[in-house]
Amino acid sequence: MVPLAEIGDPASIAARIADLAQAHNVLRVKGFAAVAGKPMRLLIQAVGPRVSHYYDRPWGAAEDRQGSVVVIGLKGLDRDAVTKSLAG
Question: Which residue of 3, 56, 65, 87 pairs with 34 in a disulfide if CB–CB is 3.0 to 4.6 A?
């Protein structure tokens, strides 16, 4: 699991994930992000470089607004490079 800091632009994280998938043989990405100024979670899903994102529900009162994604790739996936790519 890779933690995500709050983001300002959903299109930016989607582009980073698409680039990441091509550069590092990532098969699947799934998780949530907190978007500045938005009360809802941004759901992020990717299969290879095809990324979709949408707001799914408000953050719960007991939830931290901490985003994170799970990244699945081919054997030998460079975890440090993936984490740096998503850190922006």
Answer: 65
Q: Give the range of the structural domain holding residue 12, as residue numbers without chain letter.
A: 2-87
Q: How far apart are CA 79 and CA 71, in angstroms?
A: 9
User: In the structure encoding, which two tokens stand for residue 70, read together?
Assistant: 């799970």
CATH of residue 46: 3.30.1220.10
Position 51 scores a pLDDT of 97
Structural domains counted in the chain = 1
Cβ proximity of 10 and 21 under 8 Å: no
What is the model's pLDDT at position 13?
A: 94
Q: Is 6 within 8 Å of 36 (Cβ atoms)?
A: yes
